[in-house]
Amino acid sequence: MDRVLKLFLTASLLSCSCRCSKVRVPKFVTAIKGTCVVVPCSTTSHTYATWYKYQHYGYPPVYSKDTKDIINQFRGRTSLLGNAMQGNCSLKIDNVRQEDGGISVYVWINPHNIYGDYTEIKVLAPSETRISVESTQVEGTLFSAKCTVRHSCPVSPPLLEWLGLSSVSNEVTTTQDSGGLWVSVAHAQFNASRRDHGKRLTCRRMSDGNTAISDAIHILFPPTILPDSACWEREGSLHCMCWVEAEPNASISWTVDGRSALLPHFNMTNNYTGMTTVSVMTGPTGHFVTCEAANYLGNDTYQMSGFPQLAQGTDGLTYFILAAIVLIVLGIVVLGVHRRMKKRHEHSRGAKNTRGSENTSQCRQNIESNGTQTKVRQKTYEWHKDDNIYANDVSGGHIWSTAMVTSQAPEDEMASIYLNE
Ligand SMILES: *[C@@H]1O[C@H](CO)[C@@H](O)[C@H](O)[C@H]1NC(C)=O
Ligand SMILES: *[C@@H]1O[C@H](CO)[C@@H](O)[C@H](O)[C@H]1NC(C)=O
Ligand SMILES: *[C@@H]1O[C@H](CO)[C@@H](O)[C@H](O)[C@H]1NC(C)=O
Ligand SMILES: *[C@@H]1O[C@H](CO)[C@@H](O)[C@H](O)[C@H]1NC(C)=O
Ligand SMILES: *[C@@H]1O[C@H](CO)[C@@H](O)[C@H](O)[C@H]1NC(C)=O
Ligand SMILES: *[C@@H]1O[C@H](CO)[C@@H](O)[C@H](O)[C@H]1NC(C)=O
């Protein structure tokens, strides 16, 4: 059988007309190492095709129906494409190796016993994977990145994977390039998020691990004031710290009781580190403080307080509820103390101790003034607010000294009580 076949082959080699008209194959194919390559082939409708490696002696099969006949170099890497009934005799060689270069192959068509011309395989080193991405993005918008790879395998283009960011969509298109090669472009879309600011996008060709890495992606976003922001009192003055994340830099402004905080009563310093801005404000205690951060993309405000235990309130309502609870608790305590005092007072009266009675009533007065002190303070500041003092340095200075007197009043009273004794 084999001998008969070879006889036919030899006979056919002599008749050029058969070779040129019945089987169409290219003179050479260009393969990129590591990908597949297709040797296109078309002829008349047939049953099966066998491909051989050309050499001076022998007919080593590159592809055969009988897998065991295939020479080691190609076993497991070759297959036929398309439909033989429709005359398609194309050969696919997977995972092209450097040593496949320079080999010529030809096809034998059964049962017509016609053969094709030689096709030489040229092998090129793989080209670099290329990535392109617009490096500045605004948060919440979609942006796209492209990863390009050149190959010789349109039937199964190299797989590309994106690393670094998770894509919303990914689409691969393959088009014919020059020199019989192909270009596949993976076109992925990403949702810009501040978490990804400064990250790099990587495209990896899975066949050989070749990667392309983008520049750091700059993601712009409006400011957010972090909930770590708070105020506290130390050594009789108020310290407020406002933590802001923004890109580009946020400009920070502070308001105190609804007015812009101004020097010299309030000091403000900003520290910029990456996309975080920390602004510290110091000034006198007992005020409603708000931090405002803005960049060209937007702004954020955060209501803080002079009282650390109330600093968590992010909106006016929360703050109001907390303040109300504190006032109620304070009220109950005052009422309780007041009642106990009253009882004691009655006792003393029963004992007809006039000196003790005087002391107790003075003590009660003191407690009452202490109890109402919070309210007094608030009233004073509301009145300040209406008077627009923070915009005016001179009158501001005056009011602040008034505030100091108010807050010191109870201590003076205490002192006088001790003096009386
Ligand atoms: C042969 O089949 C392959 C795979 O289906 C196809 O890509 C190719 O275009 C076909 N060739 C011809 C000449 O029809
Ligand atoms: C992008 O992400 C933001 C925040 O997660 C989301 O609100 C927005 O709808 C996303 N946009 C798209 C187009 O998926
Ligand atoms: C933020 O602002 C500060 C002060 O204006 C400046 O020194 C710094 O370079 C800015 N950073 C960025 C990322 O724009
Ligand atoms: C700014 O903040 C960074 C990090 O919190 C810190 O290392 C640096 O010393 C600060 N710079 C100034 C001038 O306070
Ligand atoms: C503000 O800072 C200046 C100098 O840095 C200092 O003299 C002044 O006492 C500070 N004022 C307050 C209210 O902390
Ligand atoms: C803050 O943003 C709102 C819209 O989001 C805008 O109406 C307002 O004017 C901004 N305020 C400042 C101080 O930029």
UniProtKB/TrEMBL annotation:
Keywords: Membrane, Signal, Transmembrane, Transmembrane helix. PROSITE patterns: PROKAR_LIPOPROTEIN (PS51257). SUPFAM superfamilies: Immunoglobulin. Residues 343-376 are annotated as: Disordered. Residues 354-375 have a biased composition (Polar residues). Residues 1-20 form the signal peptide. The chain crosses the membrane at residues 317-337. Residues 343-352 have a biased composition (Basic residues). The keyword Transmembrane helix applies. It comes from the Eukaryota. The keyword Transmembrane applies. Residues 26-103 form the Immunoglobulin V-set domain. This is Immunoglobulin V-set domain-containing protein.
